[in-house]
Write a structure and sequence with these properties.
With about 400 residues, this protein is α/β, with parallel strands linked by helices. It has helices at about 10-20, 60-75, 120-130, 150, 195-205, 225-235, 250, 255-265, 295-300, 330, 335-355, and strands at about 25, 30, 35-45, 45-55, 80-85, 105-110, 135-140, 170-175, 175-180, 215-220, 240-245, 270-275, 280, 285, 305-310, 370. Helix 3 (about 120-130) packs across helix 11 (about 335-355) and helix 5 (about 195-205) runs parallel beside helix 6. Bound molecules: adenosine-5'-diphosphate (ADP) and magnesium ion.
Length: about 400
């Protein structure tokens, strides 16, 4: 006679069955069908498994982890569940372009004209993704006004140091590697770049910089949608672009032209960010001094997503802060409205790249996984307790 007081024996099949009902909120498919569950460990009622994320910078990792844990906790016989997060950022495929070794995804930040906050958005995207755990670089390709080093607190940095291969070592701050023409040219030297030279310079920045392994490289393009921009996009295996505009610039932004440029180069536009959209008033209300929803309407008109509106950061008053202090606002003041919007833009870009890169059969390149987190779980011997690759966990 079976002893009914004996807890049910937990099987791997039961654990997988429970996890097959948990979906990745972005990809809207189950964790099991996405191949995100690995290394299931069963030790009586103590269950452990690895959750393999599709990007190291996954903004939803805690939510997915919680959902997975709850699902397995509900399996009869389970007394404890530990989930170890690991991740391997996939490369989204760029058609007809040679990928750059070590650099998984290149994102361009573009604008119809200068002064709209393109560099501000670019550095904050980079910093926000780095904060989420991604390995990030930023290439300041705005050779006419290279101000990324200033914004990243690297205006004094130089890149004279070479590594063993004679490559340039990019200075790093806020967890982001930075390469810019400003490091190579003195302030008082005029720079005149023509098409072929520009192409060469950009290729050199990409190929002769010792970037190491990067999950994301953000490229700050020169403003406009002319030949210079096209040259860079063609020289770079860009996976997608973010367009920055201001409410005043929306009318000027020749969105169709900008879009056509990306279309011709076969580069999808991830969406439009409207910068300097409104003033946040002390009473909490918003003053849309230049009119409301222009960016949103432009995005709708040209059929690309609207990624968010960033308020004006006042240099006066209670929220006064020098936006060019060398610390981008997503790092300096993450609780500010500007930082929240810019971080959300970063999350949306990462999620889109995840969507693009996910093709279960081919995209899951067998690269070493990056451990993102660990909880001590059951470690009694089990048929799945095999890989050394899970042996350097850190806590989340
Ligand atoms: N939301 C904002 N609020 C206040 N000032 C901003 C904001 N975004 C950008 N700026 C400032 O406007 C100027 C232009 O921004 P920048 O990012 O350099 O533009 P671009 O790269 O398009 O030329 C910079 O001095 C920057 O600090
Ligand atoms: Mg700029």
């Amino acid at each position: 006679m079976p002893d009914t007081n004996q807890p049910a024996e937990v099987t791997e099949a039961a654990v997988l069955e429970a996890l097959s009902h948990v979906n990745d909120p972005d990809l809207k498919k189950s964790l099991t069908s996405l191949g995100m569950i690995d290394n299931i460990r069963i030790c009586g009622g103590d269950i452990g498994f690895d959750l393999v994320l599709t990007t190291t910078a996954c903004p939803l990792k805690e939510m997915i982890k919680d959902d997975a844990r709850k699902a397995v906790e509900a399996v009869p016989g389970v007394s404890s569940v530990s989930v170890q997060i690991s991740g391997k950022t996939l490369s989204a495929k760029v058609p007809q372009r040679e990928a750059l070794p070590g650099i998984k995804n290149i994102v361009a930040v573009s604008s119809g004209k200068g002064g709209v906050g393109k560099s501000t958005v670019a550095v904050n995207l980079a910093c926000a993704i780095a904060k989420q755990g991604g390995r990030v670089g930023i290439l300041d390709a705005d050779i006419y006004g290279p101000n990324v080093p200033l914004m990243m607190g690297l205006s004094e940095a130089s890149i004279k140091t070479m590594d063993d291969n004679g490559k340039l070592i990019p200075p790093e701050n806020h967890g982001v590697k930075v390469m810019s023409m400003a490091f190579l040219v003195k302030d008082d030297q005029p720079v005149v770049w023509r098409g072929p030279m520009l192409d060469k310079v950009i290729r050199q920045f990409l190929n002769d910089t010792s970037w190491g392994e990067l999950d994301y490289l953000i490229v700050d393009l020169p403003p406009g949608t002319g030949d210079a921009q096209l040259t860079i996009i063609q020289a770079t295996p860009v996976i997608g672009a973010v367009i920055v505009t201001t409410p005043q610039d929306v009318a000027v932004l020749d969105s169709r032209k900008g879009l056509a440029m990306f279309k011709n180069a076969n580069v999808p536009v991830f969406g439009i960010v409207e910068n300097m959209s409104y003033y946040q008033l002390p009473d909490g209300s918003q003053d849309y001094i230049f009119g409301k929803d222009g960016g949103k309407a432009a995005a709708e008109e040209i059929g690309v997503p609207f990624l968010g509106e960033v308020p004006i950061l006042s240099r006066l008053g209670a929220d006064a802060q020098d936006i060019n202090s060398g610390t981008p606002i997503t790092v300096a003041n993450p609780a500010s409205e500007q930082a929240k919007v810019l971080s959300s833009v970063a999350d949306q870009v990462v999620a889109k790249i995840c969507d693009m890169s996910f093709a279960p059969d081919e995209a899951q390149t067998k690269e070493p996984e990056q451990d993102l987190g660990h909880e001590h779980g059951p470690n009694c011997a089990h048929e799945h307790d095999h890989e050394q690759e899970h042996s350097h966990p850190v806590s989340v």
